[in-house]
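Page 47, continued from p. 46.
Same chain as before, 386 aa.
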Amino acid sequence: MSQKTPSLLTRISWKIEYCGYVLLERILGCFSIESIYALGEFIGALFYRFSPSYRAIVKRNLRVVMSNDSKLANPTDEEVEAVFRGNGGNFLSTLIAHNIPAEDLSNHLEIEGLDKLSEALESTGAVLMLAHMGNWELLTKFTAKLPESVPMGAIYRPLNNPHVNELVLKRRESAGMTLVSFKNPAFTLLRLLKKRGIVSILSDQRIGERGEHVAFFGCPTPCSRLPHLLHEKTGSPLFTVAMHTVSPAKWRLTFTDQETLTQQEAFDQLATGMQTSPSDCFWFQDRWQEFPNLKWLNEAQECSSLLFQKKRLVCILESRSLLERHPLIEERLKNYDLQFWDEGDCPSNAYIAIYDKDLTFVKQCKKYGLKKGCRPINVAIKALKL
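Result:
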């Protein structure tokens, strides 16, 4: 099937976006990366002030991320703002990270666990489990610290703007990275590992029903099995990777060897690295906005997490009378902390909302970022398989 030819207006908008992107890069290139990071923090702080829906999304995610086995988290406004500031600084500094020469890399990047990675590369390749964390453009440069040149590959989803996409591709390929289509990555990645190369896979994103459900931060989440499949096929060791901001425009990259190699334990280690510095992670999407069903619970080791058993996920119902009319809902939502809007609860910390007719309640939910998670009773009944 041939692709639809973009309209003239679309092609013009692509050109304008590309020119604006290149111009922004050149302007930022006139300043130090420390100044750019500080500017990004300032922009992030402004975004925090004027975006109540994203504040609510970040706060809900932090409630899961910052909890531990003995205490359910209640993130403060300062901790939520730190995510906006950290992501602003990280994002803006990525736009000029490609300008950092290899000899200056040590001024901006500390690396822990590189000796174990180097040792593994003497005989096999290595599979890296990454998170959306820190200045990801510097990940294309860390191989300069290895004793010899090593091929590196990563799964890549093309950007919407083809001109910007071509620019990014050329830069990453010039840094020695092979970018592999997300539609059919396995063959190329296997070939790289057989050449004693490094394969990087972003593993913290939800991938729908294609994934296998594990307890990610204690909650049932569909995650990619690709890192473990590559390990099983090639025998290449598996490493989780975390990137923390040490100071403005300086990051610490940590490689942790996964000796146990079970999928659940590897995702637990990935979560631990993210939990160490949540302000460096991307929490602007509703990460856990799903109804867990029995299949999910079984695949996620029956969700044995103590925190999940404490019902830390909040489901808010428009009215308690919904339970009276549909008694099976309460049984299906036993993994949630049920709250009721007609009893004065605000949906700002809710992950799922169920309503019947009250449009005021719907508007309130959407104000707090619960758009996909706000469902009418007939849709919720279908999703819960009642």
